[in-house]
Amino acid sequence: MLILPGSILALATLLFVGMALLVYKEQQAGKRKVLGRVRGWLDRRADSVIALCKRAWSTITISCVYLVHQIRHAAAAAIAPRPRARKPKPKLEFERTDNHLSSMHDHKSDTALSTAQKKKLRNKKLEERF
What we know:
Blueprint (H helix, E strand, L loop, with lengths): L2 H27 L6 H44 L20 H11 L4 H15 L1
């Protein structure tokens, strides 16, 4: 019964040593010697999967930061004191007094010229000027 696990261990060890030796020799030569096109294709697929995982991780991270921000904002809004409702300003009404200014205003409105009289006076002044 010990023959099978021992042989599997020996085969795995030989395979590992062989692969390590192959990688070492390829690094010395600067190019791939065995299955270059297939391994290049696998490298490109692995790179695209890694890039996809990085984008997914950054999206998840940003979403978590946004969620924490929203929770903090909601908690702050719940805790913060509410501003008091402002009362509308009372409309001020002035009582009419009988003083010099009010009498001048009344006189001005009483003696105001009509639009026809204003036109006639304007034309007369223009004729005198020219």
